[in-house]
UniProtKB/TrEMBL annotation:
Limits of the DUF7834 domain: 204-425
Alphabetical list of InterPro entries matching this protein: DUF7834, GmrSD_N
Record's protein name: Uncharacterized conserved protein, contains ParB-like and HNH nuclease domains
Highest taxon, organism lineage: Bacteria
Start and end residues of each GmrSD restriction endonucleases N-terminal domain: 41-196
Length: 472
């Protein structure tokens, strides 16, 4: 890995950006080996939008002012900037900001207000409308605090460490090992950069906009990881949501590092073939999409994969608007309002997406309730609370995701779900416990007609009979 390291002030950084390679000696940024670092600052298309708000601006100003009052002669350290130096065909270098765009953009806005003569001659380019709107809001806020800005900001006393690599991949590898300033990228942000870098530059802007249109991806990625990891053939452990670094590493490994290098956009799915007596063959595909557990390729393939499942999640889980499946829609709306079932809800969503990606809407209303009986059984078979680690244990004992994935038809899947034996632990089903409230709601939703005294002995049989058409 070839890395150049240099220390520079914000004043030097902006001066270099303005005058490109025609550096004045006093403003030249020199690396530790004595070589000048040159290039125009640039924000790659695949970077997330500029999102700092007044809270971050206020915090930065307060920190700089506190430092100035205590150490007026010492520079204020703003952390590291990680840059990829890209050589363009015209011989000019471009310094792509890999880590630090929030700080650099904010300081650029301050510089323009402090020195209006920079005007049109200075400025990073922002095509993303989110960035453009936030810049307008922040400029207005900074203008309103201009006196405070003039009192505490001296660009020549604000200092960065520059880390410059010649390879984009090296820049991202270095970024992942550093604890630099600013808001750290999460797993979805890192895989975004990975896949957009794999897209042909001609289409990067198009796919960057497509990615931004997906919105928040944490939920769908969590569901997909459950579907991919919780299987008996290739079982893998998922870290707890509280282990944020491990979660990020898992996302990056599974959905970026371990994806194939091929540029092909490949999807997998089940095909139903019928061969007639004369040998003719007709084929039917249940769903025109991707398989949860399929291998992925870097770039367009993975972007389309995430987009497909985000759309499924929105349509069938997050905000269903399905007049032709009114009963299913009503049931999902009820299900998402259950208390004390957050971890179970995560598994249920993974199961639901896996089923829909294989079989579409075929028998979806019935399957949704059958899945509920299996997945939410943990709410009544546990003595008290449903803990996060108990869900992975449950899947090992009851491989419900495999039942779906290995089924060839909806009928086959329904039979596997119906074989599950529901049990009720008699603890904590009195009074106003979470468990008791859950059973009350299930009793009402499914019309089980049970009184409190019947819960221990008859709840499991009544729900099973209602959902499967048979008793235990």
């Amino acid at each position: 890995m070839s890395v150049q390291v240099a220390t520079c002030t914000v004043d030097q950084l902006i001066s270099q950006h303005l005058i490109e390679n025609g550096l004045k000696e006093s403003n030249t940024i020199v690396c530790s080996e004595g070589q000048p670092i040159t290039g125009m600052l640039s924000i790659p298309e695949y970077q997330r939008p500029y999102c700092w708000q007044s809270l971050q601006l206020k915090s930065l100003l307060e920190d700089i002012e506190s430092h100035r009052l205590l150490n007026s002669e010492q520079p204020y350290y703003l952390g590291s900037l990680i840059l990829h130096q890209e050589k363009l065909s015209n011989g000019i270098s471009r310094l792509n900001i890999i880590d630090g765009q929030q700080r650099v953009t904010t300081l650029s806005l301050m510089a323009v207000l402090l020195n209006p003569s920079l005007g049109a001659s200075y400025g990073l380019s922002f095509d993303n409308p989110v960035s453009q709107q936030q810049i307008k809001r922040n400029l207005k806020w900074l203008q309103e605090h201009l006196d405070e800005l003039k009192g505490c900001i001296a660009l020549e006393k604000l200092q960065f460490t520059l880390v410059v690599t010649q390879s984009e991949d090296d820049a991202y590898r270095f970024f992942e090992t550093q604890n630099t300033g600013g808001v750290r990228l999460g797993g979805p942000d890192i895989i975004k950069a990975h896949h957009l870098r794999a897209v042909d530059k001609t289409f990067q802007t198009t796919f960057a906009q497509k990615w931004e249109g997906l919105g928040e991806l944490d939920g769908i990625i969590s569901a997909l990881l459950k579907g991919r990891f919780w299987q008996q053939m290739n079982a893998r452990e998922l870290p707890s949501y509280q282990q944020t670094k491990l979660v990020k590493d898992t996302i990056v490994k599974e959905l970026a590092q371990d994806t194939g290098a091929s540029k092909e956009d490949i999807s997998y799915g089940r095909i139903r073939r019928v061969q007639g007596l004369s040998g003719e063959i007709s084929q039917q595909i249940s769903q025109q999409g991707y398989d949860v557990r399929q291998p992925l390729n870097a770039g367009i393939n993975s972007i389309h994969y995430l987009s497909y499942f985000q759309e499924l999640s929105h349509r069938y889980w997050e905000n269903p608007d399905l007049p032709h499946l009114a009963s299913y829609q009503a049931f999902i709306t009820w299900l998402k309002n259950l208390d004390g079932c957050g971890y179970l809800e995560g598994l249920y969503q993974a199961c639901l997406l896996l089923y829909i990606s294989q079989f579409g809407e075929d028998q979806l209303d019935d399957v949704a309730k059958k899945l509920f009986r299996v997945v939410y059984s943990r709410r009544v078979s546990n003595q008290k609370a449903v803990r996060e680690n108990s869900i992975s244990s449950f899947v090992k004992e009851t491989p419900v995701l495999d039942w779906i994935a290995l089924s060839y038809t909806p009928d086959q899947c329904c039979k596997l779900l119906d074989r599950f034996e529901l049990r009720v632990d008699p603890s904590n089903i009195k009074g106003n416990s979470v468990k008791k409230r859950f059973m009350d709601k299930v009793n009402n939703e499914f019309g089980l007609s049970l009184n409190d005294e019947q819960y221990e002995k008859e709840f499991a049989a009544a729900l099973t009979r209602k959902v499967t058409g048979s008793s235990l």
